[in-house]
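Exercise: predict the fold of this chain.
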Amino acid sequence: MRQLIIIVIVFMMTSCGSQKNMVKETKTSEISIFQQWKLESIRGEYLDINALSKEPQITFDKSENRFFGNDGCNSFSGSFKSEGNKIILGPIMATKMACMNMLIPNKYNQALSKVASFNLKQLKGEDRQKENYQLQLLDQNSSVILQFVKAE
């Protein structure tokens, strides 16, 4: 009888462990740079997007190795190469509209030219109403220069 109880306990512990791993794998596979992201901060400064004509964002398209988005005033696009968490953004083409507030668009474009790698994070917590993901674009010193949240 004692051996049967031990076998049942070991089986239950093994089953629970494999379910936890399945959840982790599912969560990790859901996170991908290849989607639309809303800009949240530039070099740690959170944005006041009310002063902008459009919400700054970026989308990475894996099938064409291209990115495109908006800096708060102008639309932009370009090509990219990625391997692991390393990413190289090619030359950026952009419209040249004149907007009232060009401070954030200029900072955004300057930061895009310095991108060398990225981090993806799953966000949870009391300050978030629901689960979300964060994309951090880093410079060559691994400092966060642009931070985004997944667009819905």
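Check your answer against the key: Helices lie at 2-30, 103-112.
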